[in-house]
Structures are given as C-alpha cells and as structure tokens.
Specification:
- There is one protein chain.
- By secondary structure, the protein is of the alpha+beta class.
- The chain folds into two domains: 3-152, 3-Layer(aba) Sandwich (Rossmann fold); 164-263, Bacterial fluorinating enzyme like (Elongation Factor Tu (Ef-tu), domain 3), CATH 2.40.30.90.
- Helix content is 23%, strand content 33%.
- The strands form two sheets. Strands 8, 9, 10, 11, 12, 13, 14 and 15 form an eight-stranded antiparallel β-sheet that branches. A seven-stranded mixed β-sheet has the order 2-1-3-5-4-6-7.
- A hairpin with a 2-residue loop joins β8 (164-166) and β9.
- 39% of the residues are buried.
C-alpha cells in the first residue's frame, strides 16, 4: 500500500488540503495519506523544512513526501521531484525539500515537465493540487520519475540553515521553538559527534552578549529543576532546554536568533 505524506502551510480552515487529497486518491485510491503538518506559518519555508526533515527518517522505504510552502507559486521557481535512497520528495524548488532529502541522501533531482501525465491544470496558484499532488501520486503508483520530468543539475538550498563550525566552536541559530519552550538549534547530532561532544561535557553558550555554562546531557532530569541543559531530543537536533521549565522565556530567545557555542570540557 503506497504511503504519501503531506506538509503545507494551508491550515485546515479551508478546503485546500481536502482538494489535494482528493486528487491523490483519484490517481492512487489505495494510498495511505499521512499529514505531517498543515499548520506551518504562512510562507515560512524554513519552518516547513524543519518539520519535514525531522519526520522523514521514520517512514518506510518508498514513501512519497509532498511539501507545499510556496510563496513563489506561479512565478519562476521550478516544480521539482527528488529521488533519495529511500524516498521521493515533491514540491517547489525553494529550499523546502532540501534538508529532508539531504538527510536521506539525494540521488537525482528532476523538474516536473511532462504535463501530459498530469490532470488539466485549473489554476496557476494552486500547484499543490494541480501539480505536486498528482506528481506525487503517480510516483506512489509506480510511474518512473524520469517519465514525469527532466533531470536538473542542482537545486535550491536554504541559506544559513546549517551551523558554522570552527574546531570546537559553533555559530548556530534557533530554527524552532516547540510547545514546551525548548530552543531547537540547527546543530545536528552528526555535527556534535564531529566536534567530539560527549555526555557530560559543557558548552559555553553566548546569547545576546551573555554567556551561560550549559551541560550537554542525555535527558532532562540530569540537571536540577529549573536548570539549563543541552541535549539531542527526538528530532536529532541540539536543543537548549530548562528542566521542567521554558528556555524560550528563561533566555528571552526566539526562532531565528543566533547563538555561539564552544565546547569547553
């Protein structure tokens, strides 16, 4: 049974998501459609990229991931498909798909160019329904990706999405604040391994000109209640947290803000 995921900034107030699903099911009626999120902030490509990249490793091989956060719809940006080692990605070429696809390993990128295999296009501003949904459904049905498009030599990547690494020093950003107030950075577990971070080490974290000594631990209760900590949580990214507290409020830091981290011991 084919699995297709959807991530959009459409919300659920309107019928947009239902229309995309209707088109998909018209092409591949036995598909299982999984909603990653439709509450991405309007036009917020980076937020959508984060949720997609966090989610995709947990889906079975062959899953088709459709992402639509598309402020450039109807313009010059390309509609693309990406084949990775374990999945397919379909959406706009604006950086939304790149972190997730790179996490699984990109094999080939295609521009969707074969309109003959897609249903008639109704609108120039609803590619989620008229282009990405049908293309993703056809991939899930077993249509070869090369039949739907032409190869591309490159793709758009998000600017400043990855941290800057210099020895044991990291220049990072907050890319997400979750419902508990945890500050999710753009530092992956692979980056931490690369600089030699281990359980029990300490980071000097500088935010807004103030330095904090923050232990790198494996779980929240490793520090007393109300204390700062750093850990890699379920999504594979380093988070700054407060045990049974709210790091967002405690530090006065929000999404998009920068911080410097240095491994001190």
């Amino acid at each position: 049974m084919p699995i297709i995921t959807l991530l959009t900034d459409y919300g659920l107030k309107d019928s947009y998501v239902a229309e995309v699903k209707g088109v998909i099911l018209g092409i591949v009626p036995d598909a299982t459609i999984v909603d990653i999120s439709h509450d991405v902030g309007n036009y917020d490509i980076e937020e959508g990229a984060f949720h997609l990249a966090r989610s995709v490793p947990y889906f079975p091989e062959g899953t088709v991931h459709i992402g639509v956060v598309d402020p450039g719809v109807g313009g010059e940006r390309k509609p693309i498909m990406i084949r990775s080692r374990d999945a397919f990605f379909v959406g706009p070429d604006n950086g939304l798909l790149a972190p997730a696809a790179e996490r699984l390993g990109i094999e080939q990128v295609y521009e969707i160019t074969n309109r003959e295999l897609l249903p008639p296009k109704v609108s120039d501003v609803f590619d989620g329904r008229d282009v990405f949904g049908p293309a993703g459904a056809l991939l899930a049905k077993g249509v070869d990706i090369a039949e739907l498009g032409t190869p591309l030599s490159g793709y758009v990547r998000l600017q400043n999405y990855e941290p800057k690494v210099a020895g044991s020093h990291l220049e990072a950003r907050v890319i997400h604040v979750d419902g508990f107030g945890n500050l999710v950075t753009n530092i992956t577990s692979e980056v931490l391994e690369g600089i030699g971070a281990r359980d029990g080490c300490v980071f000097a974290v500088t935010i807004h000109g103030r330095e904090y000594r923050v232990p790198y631990v494996r779980h929240f209760s490793a520090v007393p209640k109300g204390e700062l900590l750093a850990l890699v949580a379920g999504g594979g990214y380093l988070e700054l947290s407060v045990n049974m507290g709210n790091a967002h409020e405690h530090l006065g830091v929000g999404r998009g803000e920068k911080m410097n981290l240095t491994l001190v011991r």
